[in-house]
């Protein structure tokens, strides 16, 4: 099981990194600043706290009924910061998670939550970033961020790709649909925590959640 390192992944310059995204980049940035509770975007890619909390919850859920293993919040936050992981990668990783639930549930029962989070983030980031140019993501950098050997991370990656049958392509339509689900979950999570919903929360929720169910969330 990875013991995520406190050392950030090496970067080749000190400029603000771009949040990688499928589709319109400016539209995405404007959207997530509100819906994913970023406020001011960080200098390097990482999850906001609500997104880290959601990732911890969703990657722990797959072990329910099978193991007491779960993904700690600090593990999710640390890896996203050290490996400069964008929320786009989480969107893809959650789609991979859904595929695995269908095609290989046995893999999900046996893999550690922290390893599953690490490798799905890495594969998703490669899908978004690996273009053969200077900012290419290397396994040794991910290994350093996770505090494990390159040999181990290569093995974890091979097992993941075999489990998902190398089906890592994600269409733009699937990406935006999954992003909407993430935004809805974050809005519900934050509104329930506060006891009230912001305008941005409501704007998101009214498109996807039944009003009666929404009122019940606030009352509870």
TrEMBL record:
Database matches in SUPFAM superfamilies: Cyclin-like
InterPro entries, sorted: Cyclin-like_sf, Cyclin_PHO80-like
Highest taxon of source: Eukaryota
GO MF annotation terms: cyclin-dependent protein serine/threonine kinase regulator activity; protein kinase binding
CDD domains: CYCLIN_ScPCL1-like
Any one GO CC term of the record: cyclin-dependent protein kinase holoenzyme complex
Family statement: Belongs to the CNPPD1 family.
PANTHER family in the record: PROTEIN CNPPD1, PTHR15615
Protein name: Protein CNPPD1
Source organism of this protein record: Timema monikensis
């Amino acid at each position: 099981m990875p013991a995520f390192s406190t050392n950030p992944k090496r970067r080749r310059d000190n400029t603000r990194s771009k949040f990688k995204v499928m589709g319109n980049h400016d539209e995405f940035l404007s959207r997530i600043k509100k819906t994913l509770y970023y406020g001011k975007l960080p200098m390097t890619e990482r999850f906001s706290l609500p997104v880290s909390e959601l990732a911890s919850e969703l990657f722990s859920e797959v072990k329910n009924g099978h193991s007491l293993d779960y993904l700690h919040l600090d593990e999710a936050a640390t890896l996203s910061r050290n490996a400069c992981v964008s929320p786009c990668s989480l969107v893809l990783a959650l789609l991979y998670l859904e595929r695995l639930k269908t095609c290989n549930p046995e893999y999900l029962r046996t893999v550690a939550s922290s390893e599953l989070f690490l490798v799905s983030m890495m594969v998703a980031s490669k899908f978004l970033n690996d273009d053969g140019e200077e900012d290419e993501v290397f396994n040794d950098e991910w290994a350093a961020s996770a505090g494990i050997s390159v040999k181990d991370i290569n093995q974890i990656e091979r097992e993941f790709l075999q489990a998902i049958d190398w089906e890592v392509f994600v269409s733009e339509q699937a990406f935006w649909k999954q992003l909407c689900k993430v935004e809805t979950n974050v809005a519900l999570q934050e509104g329930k925590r506060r006891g009230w919903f912001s305008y941005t929360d409501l704007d998101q929720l009214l498109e996807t959640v039944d009003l009666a169910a929404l009122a019940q969330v606030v009352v509870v």
